[in-house]
Amino acid sequence: MYLTRTLVTQACEEWGLARHDYVGRTIMSELATNAVVHAVEGHEVQAWVTRLGDAIEFRVWDPSHAPPVVPKADYEAEDGRGLMMVQFLASGGCGYRHMVGGPGKVVWARLAL
Known about the structure:
- 35% of the residues lie in helices and 24% in strands.
- It is α+β, with helices and mostly antiparallel strands.
- It has a 4-stranded antiparallel sheet, covered by helices on one side.
- Helix 2 (21-38) packs antiparallel against helix 3.
- It starts with a helix and ends with a strand.
């Protein structure tokens, strides 16, 4: 996940938005981790960071068509909180969409500026 966090840091610095780096890295890291853990084994994932005027959008593609699952809160669980955290931090919304005419899906989250 080092590469995805570095991608966010570089983008935030380039856009003069370094104050959003920590939250952005957290969102991207959780999206990428979820894709790696739940995607089709042996396939790559791809990540993007985009400036959308009043938001930063974080996107991760994986080849699986299975929708992301946000489990019910279980405060005793040792894992499974990543997408809950993304929902909490994504002040500009979050979701997913299947790729039209291609494999997989893109899971996205926006951080409002």
